[in-house]
Amino acid sequence: MRNLSALAAILAAVFLLITGNGLSGTLIPLRAKLDGFSASQIGALGSAYFAGMLAGAMVAGTLVRRAGYIRAFAAFVALAVTAMVTFPAALSPIPWIALRLVHGFALAGLYAVIEGWIQSRATNENRGALYAVYQVVNFGASAAGQGLMALADPRGVAPFSVAAAMLAMSILPLAFTSADPPERPRATRPRILWLVKQAPVGATSALIVGATNGAYWALAPVYALAAGLTPNQAPALTASVILGSALVVYPVGRLSDRLDRRIVVVAFSALGALVETALCFALGFGLWPLLGLGFLLGATTFVLYTLSTGLANDRVGPDDRVVVSSGLLFLYCVGAVIAPAVASGLMERFGAAALFAQSGALHAILAGFALWRLTRRDKAEQAPIARAPEGKAAFP
Question: Which helix (DSSP H) or strand (DSSP E) does residue 370 occupy?
Answer without folding.
Answer: helix 354-376
